Amino acid sequence: MPRIPGPKKPRPNAKSGKAAPAAALPLTLVLEVTGRDADGEFLARPVKWEAAEAPPRIIIAPGARGDQRPPGMGDRVLAKLHKGPDGVTARVLKVLPKPITRIVGQYTKEKGFGTITPADKKSRLSFIVARGDENGADDGDLVIAVPAEGRATGTSVPKARIVENLGSVNTPGAISLLAIHAHGIPDAFPVDAIAEAKEAEPPTLKGRTDLRKIPLVTIDPDDARDHDDAVHAEPDPAVPGGWIVTVAIADVAAYVTHNSALDREAYLRGNSTYFPDRVAPMLPEELSADLCSLREGENRATMAVRMHFNAEGKKTSHTFIRGLMRSAARLTYQQVQNAIEGRPDDKTGPLLESIIKPLYAAYAVMKKGRDKREPLEINAPERRVRIGADGQIATITLRESIASMQLIEEMMIQANVAAAETLEAKRTPAIYRIHDEPSDLKIEALADFMHSIKMPFTMGQKLSPSVFNRILREQKEGPFAPIVNEVVLRSQSQAIYSADNIGHFGLNLQRYAHFTSPIRRYADLIVHRALIRALKFGDDGLTDDEIARLPQIAEHISTCERRSMLAERESVDRYLAAYMADRIDAVFPGRISGVTSFGLFIRLDETGADGLVPIRTVGHEFFKHDESRHALIGSRSGYTYALGDKVEVKLLEAAPVTGGLRVAIEAN
Predict the structure, then answer these.
(1) Alpha helices in 78-199 (DSSP H)
(2) For 18-47, how does the pLDDT look when each residue is reduced to its tens digit (9 = 90+)?
(3) What is the pLDDT of residues 538-553, one digit of tens each?
(4) CA dist 83 to 10, 62, 86, 90, 636, Å?
(5) 3-state secondary structure 41-91
(6) Considering the entire predicted model, what is its pTM?
(7) Superfamily of domain 22-96
C-alpha cells in the first residue's frame, strides 16, 4: 500500500528530553504500560527508575503467549528486554495482578457469612463478606464491593464489603448491567448535559443548503437504535456509466459544541457501547434517538458529501454540504435485499425503481474500484444475541453479511475517504483512523502457523492486503478456513485513532478519517468540526484548543473504544453461557480455536461460543504445549491436538456470571 511520506519519529517517554542509553536497563524488569505509539503498539517504562535522564523508549512486543492475557493500558508486567539496533522491545513474561480497589461479582449466602465470586473469569480470588456487610444482598445477587480490612478468621481469604446491590443474575438486563459496572462505563448523564439536550431545537434552513428534495433513505439493521447516515444515488449525466452518490450524516456538531456539558460527557464516554438489550449512548436520547437521528419524514440537520464516480469506480471528485434533509424512508438491510431479489414489500415496492435499484447500480460501479484496490477480506462472523419481550435470550446466531450491508459499508468508506482528503487538502488538523501493517513478530507467528498446516509463507516479502487475501482464498474451501481467517486476523495490527496519518493498511487507503457516525463516536464529531472549520461552514468548528489537544483526544478515544469492545464481547460471552446453562452434558461439534499451556479452547459450531478444555483433562497422559506448532502433544503416544482440528466436546459447566464454558473432548 502506498504510505504517507516521512519517517516515523520516536516519541520520548518523559518530558526531560534526553533519554538514557539502553545499556542502563537490566535484561529483566517490571514495566508499566503507559501508552501507545503511532503504530498502535504499547509503550512502557520501568516502574522503578532513579536516573536523571528519561528511560529509553520501550515497545511491548506483540504476540504474547496464549497462556496469558495480553497487557493493557496501566498494567504492570514482568518482561524480558531485547536491545537491538532499532530500539528496545520487551517480551512479556507475566502480567502482574493489579491492586484491587473494586469488586464486581456474584454474592453467595453461607451460614453466618457470604462469599463473592468475581465476574472476571481471569480472577482466581474469592472474597468473604462478614455479617453486616451484605448491604441487603441476597443469595445469587450481582454486587459491587470494596476490599475490607483483614482476612477471614483462620484463612488467607480476603474480606470485602458490599456497597451496591445490582439485583438477581436472572433479572432481565442483569448481564449487560454487569458489563457496564465491571468496566466503569458511564450509564447516567449529568443534569447539565440532560438540560442542554432538552433545550435543543429542530433545525432551520439558516446557513444550510436545502436537500429535502433528494430522496435520501436510511438503511440499517432491524434492531438499530439510531440512524446517523442516509444515502442516495443517481446516474452522472456528464459521465457515461458514472454515478453520483450522496451520503448524508447527522450534523451532531450543531448540537454538541466545544466544551459544552454535552461535549464534556461525550468526550468522557468516547463512543456508544452496544449490548444485546440496551445501549450506553454517547449522547442523551433527546439527541441520539431524536434530533440527531435521521428519522423518516422529519427535517434534520446534516453534513453531506456528494461524490462522483466514473464507470470504473474511481472517485473523481466530491463536495461537502452543510444542509437540511428529510429522510424519504427508514429501511432495513433485509428489506432492501429482499426487494432487489424480487421480493419487495409494501414499503420497498414503490421505492424499488427510483431509489433501491440506482443504489445497487452505483454500488456495482463502486465495487470495481474496491476490487481494484483490494482491501483485506477477512471473514469474521459476528455473533448476534436477540432478546425476547420477556427480557430473556430468544436466539443466538451468526450475523450474515448480505449485499445491502456491503453497499452501505462501501458508501460509508468512500465518505470517510472524502473527509480525510478534504482535511488534508485544506491543511486542517484532525483525527485519522489509522491501521499499520503487521509487525515482524506477528508475521513470524503467522509464518510458523502456516508451516504447521503445510502451507508455505515467504518471510521478507512486501506486505500488502493482497498477500493475506491470497492465503484466505487458497484456504477458503479447505478444512482450516475458519482458523486461517482467525490467525490472519490476529496477525494484524490494531486500528486506532491518531492525529498523525500513516494510512489504513487493512482498507489499503492512504487517507481515512471516521466521519459517518457522530452520534456514537467522538472521533467523527471531531472530524465534523474540522470540516466546518476547513470549509468555513460556521463558527462551531474545531477550535485552536482542540487542535492543540488532538493527540491526547486520539489516545483517550482509542482507550474508550477498547473498553467498549471488551465490555461488548464479555457481555455476549455471558449471554452465551446463560443460553447454554440448561444444556449441560450435551455434545457439540467444534474446532480447536486456541492452544495454550493450560489447555485447549474449542469454538462450538452452533453458536460460536468458546469453551475451555483444561490441560489436566486432555487424554490420559501428560500433554506438552508446542508453541511453534500451535499444538498439545502427548508425551507417550505422540497424539496431537492442533489448532484447527475438528473435535466433539461435552459441555460440563456454563457460568453466566463469568461467561466461561468448560468442556471435555469426547473420546474417538
Answers:
(1) 174-182, 191-199
(2) 566 777 788 898 998 887 765 667 888 888
(3) 999 999 999 999 999 9
(4) 15, 16, 8, 9, 40
(5) CEEEEECCCCCCCECCCEEECCCCCCCCCCCCCCCEEEEEEEEECCEEEEE
(6) 0.84
(7) Nucleic acid-binding proteins (2.40.50.140)
